[in-house]
Sequence to fold (110 residues):
Amino acid sequence: MKEAVNFDEFTKLDMRLGTIMHAEKVEKADKLLKLSVKTGIDERTIVSGIAEHYKPEEIIGKTVLVLLNLLPRKIRGIESQGMILMAENESGELSFLSPEKAFEAGPMVR
Fold:
C-alpha cells in the first residue's frame, strides 16, 4: 500500500470518463500508444504504455478512466496531457476501468 493521503489531497485529482477517439503506435517504442482522448472538456493527447496489451484498432471508442490534471510530460518527444488509469493483475495483464452503464465522455469520477 502506498502512503496515505488526506481527503483534501484526494479532491485535487480530476478523474473523468473519456473516450478514445484515435490510437496509434509510437515509433521505435514497443510499449507505447499515442491516444487522442475526448474528455468532455477537450480532446487531448495521452501517451500510454499499453501497446503490449492492446492493439490500437481494438480500443477506438472505448470508455476509459482518465486523470486529467496530471502535469504534462514529454514521452518520446510527445507531450502527454493526462493518464489512463488501469488495473493490473498478478500476471502483469492490464485492464481498462470502464463504467457498467453507457456514459458519454466527461462525467467526473468521485
User: Anything to note?
Assistant: Residues 54 and 94 are 9 Å apart (CA to CA). The mean pLDDT is 96.
